Amino acid sequence: MVEGQKLIGKVKGIYIKESTHMRSVEELYLQRNKYVNEDEYPHVYIDRERVWTPRPDSEEAPEHPGWLVMEVCGGQTDSKRQFMLNQIRALIYGVWLLSWSKVKLSESSIKADPNIWRSMKDLINYDLIKNGIPDESKYKEVEKKIIGLYLKRDKLLTETITTTTTKTKIKIKPRTSVDNPAQNNKTTSQNNKSVNRKPNTPKIVVEKSMFTFQQALNMQMARGMPQKSYSWGWGNASRSQTSKYMNPNTIWNSTTQRYQMLDLGKYQGISVSKLNKILKGKGTLSGQGKAFAEGCKKNNINEIYLIAHAFLESGYGRSNFASGRYGAYNYFGIGAYDNNPNYSMTFARKRGWTTPAKAIMGGASFVRKDYINKGQNTLYRIRWNPKHPATHQYATAIEWAQHQAITINNLYKQIGLKGMYYIRDKYR
């Protein structure tokens, strides 16, 4: 987060930009040092999935004094509707910020950036790239259309979704010592005698997909729409590129990328002091090692994963929703819906997340129930879903799990530890 800048005076309105980096908020955040100079930071980077607030809304954006700068993000391959959802979410968030200054959305309180090419193309069919910078009338036309998006947001955000329900019989294997963290210091020999396991030996569960790797790869290429980031933006990933990032053997043989197969639903028992070392200087998360330890132990969640999750969703404990200024805290992006991102604060208040510790404990419970219990309990499974390839996948970027694994690896290195529980997925 940018600090020490000039305080903003009278708020003029919201200044709408479009990211020139052709990346989602998540990708832009992870690669920020490569693409973004601190002086360029807007108040908010936003798309339909994420919000990143690198600059406090109380401070000036140097290039646009008096304006609250909203930068709409999204990949170059986003469809018209997908980018429209990004725009609407930005508008909803911007109007909410304006409300604190008692400024209402109008033609005088919204200003379009000169390089707002996607909105020009989608809203008034003007090709900024082909035809160049137009006169002021085109920008006024776009600004009116943008206001129209906000006024029609409820209708535009409504779509008919057809779902198919299938029934599947699931065989439950007998519980083993691996399933119970309380028994993680023991294993069973062939003679059914309990023997002690070395305390620092990782516990690895191997599971096989019913598909071969080539079958799964074929399904990814046919239905999974894998994407890759390039220097110029987003584009379709080739078969060879997808195969490289999807190959479980390559991943497992890398000490860093092995964290893609870390069991996120296993509490490791890391000391509070070590957790606090990671959390030091991370906004309102600083000093909350005890809350993470207790929340993860109660809900059987890997502590490093949950901290990494909180870092990403809360801007390392410094985001608007992590500040506590609204009487509650939300570190995991829970309840931040496309049509109403600010509901995350309402959600947090209803759950009683009025302190950082309560928000962490409550968030841990929610993550266990709504994420980990769904069965995709490793980064690899979240991205590639090997038992049901090309379905119910969290991200389209082939590098997503790789980036997350690097973050988790770095956090473990910071405290001199390694992950202890893994689910190694293999193909038939």
**Share of helical residues:** 25-40%
Strand content: 5-15%
| Major β-sheet profile | 5 strands, mixed
CATH architecture of the largest domain: 3-Layer(aba) Sandwich
- How would you write the strand order of the largest sheet? 3-2-4-1-5
Using only CA atoms, what is the Rg? 23 Å
Structural class: alpha/beta
Number of helices: 17
Count the strands? Answer: 11
Look up the CATH topology of the largest domain.
Lysozyme-like
What is the domain tally? 3
Give the overall shape, derived from the CA principal axes: globular
In angstroms, what separates the terminal alpha carbons? 46 Å
CATH homologous superfamily classification of the largest domain = Peptidoglycan recognition protein-like
Please describe the structure with a list of short key phrases separated by commas or semicolons.
428 residues, alpha/beta, 17 helices, globular, 38% helix, 11 strands, Lysozyme-like
How would you summarize the topology of this molecule?
Elements: E1 13-18, H1 25-30, H2 32-35, E2 44-46, E3 51-52, E4 67-72, H3 80-99, E5 110-112, H4 117-124, H5 128-131, H6 136-151, H7 153-156, E6 186-188, E7 194-196, E8 203-208, H8 213-224, E9 227-230, E10 233-236, H9 239-246, H10 248-252, H11 272-279, H12 289-299, H13 303-314, H14 343-350, H15 356-370, H16 379-384, H17 400-414, E11 421-426
Helix pairs in contact: 3-6, 4-6, 11-12, 12-15
